[in-house]
Design a protein that fits this description.
With 110 residues, the protein is mainly beta. 0% of the residues lie in helices and 38% in strands.
Length: 110
């Protein structure tokens, strides 16, 4: 199980999250503060990034025969997902997303 706390920002909570089935917990990347031209963006103008890091994964999807199919992603993977994927929730001061593995579009490598 992965601990759902961020090392950059220390939280008072040491809550452990274990998603069920084929669900994953993702920490969304921070929005850009400036444009490529150097213009500072206010919070209302920032787009929510569709990238994040996997914090915790479930035990897999249950197949028709009762066995479990392991997930293709693992803790620590950087992923790309659709803008409206998952359900947002807060743990302390940290905002996380809970989504199904099928909502993940790609794993970012390199």
């Amino acid at each position: 199980m992965a601990v759902a706390t961020k090392e950059k920002k220390k939280s008072n909570t040491n809550l452990k999250l274990q998603p069920l089935g084929d669900r994953v917990v993702v920490e969304r990347e921070e929005a850009e503060e400036r444009t490529a031209g150097g213009i500072v963006l206010p919070d209302s103008a920032k787009d929510k990034p569709a990238r994040g890091t996997i914090v915790s994964v479930g035990d897999g999807r249950t197949l028709d025969n009762g066995s479990k199919a392991p997930l293709q992603v693992k803790v620590g993977d950087r992923v790309l997902f659709s803008s409206y994927a998952g359900d947002a929730f807060k743990v302390g001061d940290q905002e996380l997303l809970l989504m199904r593995e099928e909502d993940i579009l790609a794993v970012i490598t390199g």
